[in-house]
Amino acid sequence: QQMDQKQQEKRIAALAPQELAEIQKQLEGDVQNLRQSLDGMRLAASKFQESKGVVRSLALDVEDKEIMIPLTSSLYVPGKIIDKEQVIVEVGAGYFINMKLERGSEY
């Protein structure tokens, strides 16, 4: 393994400055993509925790209570709690499943 590292060092040392600059640019792009992916994952985790809290708070609400239902992150429509023991959970790819409140908060 130490021999492989020395061979790689020799190969890198043999590269022209333009080739090194191109490699640097590619690596910086890779790092930027990883940062964006990490930011996206953090945002998704934050939204998940927020949703989990909302599902738990439903157990405390009363039936027939008027609420605002999120259709997107910026579009809400008025609705009513009909059965506080049932929730509709998005499971991905635009699919939703009706679940018991307890199971929905675990999901």
Q: How are the SSEs placed, and which strands pair?
A:
Layout: H1 2-13, H2 17-58, E1 66-70, E2 76-80, E3 86-92, E4 95-100, H3 101-106
Antiparallel strand pairs: 1-2, 3-4
Structural features, described:
This protein has 107 residues and is an alpha+beta fold. The protein is elongated, with a radius of gyration of 25 Å. The chain contains three helices and four strands; from the N terminus they run ααββββα.
What does this entry show, briefly?
By secondary structure, the chain is α+β, with helices and mostly antiparallel strands.
- Sketch the topology as an H/E string, one letter per element: HHEEEEH
Question: Cα distance, first to last residue?
Answer: 45 Å
Q: What class, by secondary structure content?
A: alpha+beta
Overall pLDDT level = 84
What is the CA-atom radius of gyration, in angstroms?
25 Å
Largest sheet: 2 strands, antiparallel
Number of helices: 3
Q: What proportion of the residues form beta strands (DSSP E)?
A: 15-25%
Molecular shape: elongated
Number of strands: 4
Spatial arrangement of strands, main beta sheet: 1-2
Q: State the share of residues found in helices, binned by percent.
A: 55-70%
Unreliable stretches, pLDDT < 50, 5 or more residues? Answer: none
Notable characteristics:
alpha+beta; two-stranded antiparallel ribbon; two-stranded antiparallel sheet; 107 residues; single chain
